[in-house]
Specification:
The complex is a heterodimer.
Chain A: E1 3-7, E2 10-13, E3 19-26, E4 32-38, E5 44-52, E6 55-58, E7 65-70, E8 73-78, E9 87-94, E10 102-104, E11 108-112
Parallel strand pairs in A: 2-11
Antiparallel strand pairs in A: 1-3, 3-8, 4-5, 4-9, 5-6, 7-8, 9-10, 9-11
Chain B: E1 3-6, E2 10-14, E3 19-21, E4 23-26, E5 32-38, E6 45-50, E7 56-59, E8 62-65, E9 75-77, E10 86-93, E11 102-104, E12 108-113
Parallel strand pairs in B: 2-12
Antiparallel strand pairs in B: 1-4, 3-9, 5-6, 5-10, 7-8, 8-9, 10-11, 10-12
The chains are: A mainly beta, B mainly beta.
Chain lengths: ~110, ~110
């Protein structure tokens, strides 16, 4: 069975500090991976997606970056956090490219003060 | 671009009430449509999906029918329970999308009281 694990579960960070959020998928080789962001009470906005190791496509510019250093790992980061980065970050994987459902992780809650 | 519109932002019901959450979409291609449910502090999980006109998706007593004519995929349940309280998202996946994007609606927060 496939499992998806996100870390950390929650972070409280200062404006201007760096951030790194991680996601690991087990039990599925070469998954399509996604990062989504959800403001409090808001909808889900796709940030990045990756089809293969080393390749990441940006969907929305939010002063964030993503990397895929391993087949089963997806990292979201920034060197300087903004207040607007607060929210819920969700990693997801997908079977098919355009028709398959998304399987989400439990999410990482980020509070920027 | 592709978009999904959910009419209701918040819905408050009593147990055994009938639920309807309206979802309309706009897409250039022939999208697959989804309903996701999200409980507090968790990631969204799929309720069901439909990929053809007139196809009905269903799960846990919820159902929706793909209607290409009215570009709709309304969520319905005949009798809601307190445990159905959650946020519901309608979403679409457009096969003509250049970057494999799943577009979500704004979400509808359902609160069911006993």
């Amino acid at each position: 069975a496939q499992t998806i694990h996100q870390w950390p579960v929650a972070e409280i960070k200062a404006v201007g500090s760096p951030l790194s959020l991680g996601c690991t998928i087990k039990g599925k080789s070469s998954p399509n991976l996604y990062w989504y962001w959800q403001a409090t009470g808001g909808t889900l906005q796709q940030l990045f997606y990756s089809i293969t190791v080393g390749q990441v496509e940006s969907v929305v510019q939010l002063n964030l970056s993503a990397s895929r250093p391993k087949d089963d790992q997806f990292i979201l980061s920034t060197e300087k956090l903004l207040l607007s980065h607060s929210g819920f970050y969700l990693c997801a994987w997908r079977l098919g490219v355009n028709t398959g459902q998304l399987y989400f992780g439990e999410g990482s809650k980020l509070t920027v003060l | 671009g592709d978009s999904v519109t959910q009419t209701e932002g918040q819905v408050a019901l009593s147990e055994e009430d009938f639920l309807t959450i309206h979802c309309n979409y706009s897409a250039s291609g022939y999208p697959t449509l989804f309903w996701y449910v999200q409980y507090p502090g968790e990631g969204p999980q799929l309720l069901f999906r439909a990929s053809r006109d007139k196809e009905k998706g269903s799960s846990r007593g919820f159902e929706a029918t793909y209607d290409k004519g009215t570009t709709s995929f309304h969520l319905r349940k005949a009798s809601v329970q307190e445990s159905d309280s959650a946020v519901y998202y309608c979403a679409l996946s457009d096969p003509t999308s250049s970057f494999s994007k799943l577009v979500f609606g704004q979400g509808t927060s359902l609160s069911v009281v006993p």
